[in-house]
From TrEMBL, chains A, B:
Residues 2-67 form the Homeobox domain. Belongs to the WUS homeobox family. Keywords: Developmental protein, DNA-binding, Homeobox, Nucleus, Transcription, Transcription regulation. Residues 4-68 bind DNA. It comes from Tripterygium wilfordii (Thunder God vine). It comes from the Eukaryota. This is WUSCHEL-related homeobox 3. GO terms for cellular component: nucleus. It is found in: Nucleus. The keyword Transcription applies. GO terms for biological process: plant organ development.
Amino acid sequence: MSPAASSRWCPTPEQLMILEELYRTGIRTPNASQIQHITAQLSFYGKIEGKNVFYWFQNHKARDRQKLRRKLGNQLQQQQQQQQLYNHHNLHQLQQNHPNYFEPPAACAFHQLSHHHSSTFLSHEGGLEGARAANYRWKLEIPEIRESNAEKSMMMYEQHDWMMLMNVSSLPIQCSSNSSTITTARPLKTLELFPLTATNLKEEE
Amino acid sequence: MSPAASSRWCPTPEQLMILEELYRTGIRTPNASQIQHITAQLSFYGKIEGKNVFYWFQNHKARDRQKLRRKLGNQLQQQQQQQQLYNHHNLHQLQQNHPNYFEPPAACAFHQLSHHHSSTFLSHEGGLEGARAANYRWKLEIPEIRESNAEKSMMMYEQHDWMMLMNVSSLPIQCSSNSSTITTARPLKTLELFPLTATNLKEEE
DNA sequence: GCAAATTAATGATTTATTCAAG
DNA sequence: CTTGAATAAATCATTAATTTGC
């Protein structure tokens, strides 16, 4: 009965509490160092990774907004005049394609809101300088590719998985020629890179 | 007089060409290792980071779709019958919400294709099993928050900076440093390697 | 010809939507 | 049904094209 490493993070009550507290405090979109910090703190209460923190804030923010939107949407049932006015005014073509867009104006408003908030809590914090200076390390454990149902859908590409610390500038990738490999030079590599097979299958029409 | 490190990546013609070729070949959403490879290869032609590659594909895919959508949108003014038929036939619930989803099947196909490709040049690691084993460290340098115009918009949160390279596995990236005339005119075998056969029309006329 | 001023492309972020585990 | 995870759409911001007046 090993823990069997469930495929997704399950926040402990403590973690959740802290996260919510942080959110209440005003943190909406933590940056790298903030995430690092939070993760470190929360890791005391249980297993957790940076991406969990990241996603949590993303989702929480989004859903919070969603609720708010709904609530407001109901409240302002009668003020739709404005709505229509607005709609009629600055409308992109794409809205044609999204007839189910409930409240485009709301969305717009939210953008602004968003900006406002971030600047708000950033200003008060004023403590990013310190963070900004240093380098941080992250241990990235390979994300346990879920092959559970792999047979069906092949596998998922988690393209987010790679997004990270690309600043690997130090990167030894820098062509370690020293060994023989050179001979082939780039053309060959290129070849490897490009499976010219198939190629067809354009997404067109 | 340093180059002053422009704030955003500017692909060299070679890099661009290769990327486009890859795209044409079918790569839409490269995974971690693919991005690694591509980045390594392209780094020979100029400064480049993984995230550039990632973003490039994201944007290219999106804008390609955009164009296509527009085009089709015009073309299919009268063919909406088919659409409806299709929609009615193999429909997930979500398609209700996205009546404007033109080619869900295409998307699917690409995933498969993509997978095929990756396995093609990742075959040496015999799949993902090998990769999954280890943990890796990455140095995360705080991304040099651009404060250039900070006073106006405070700062940007680059939350993407942290997400990255989860999968990084065996990293077979063998670059060739080689001492050829790198400076300006690289031969760019790659180009020659790819018969730019235009069986598929250019994106838009 | 050549810069300042505009516009078009496109790299980089942020937000909204969807998928699927529990 | 809730929510972590992933993807796609929309948006912002900067660079390259280009126009324009001189």
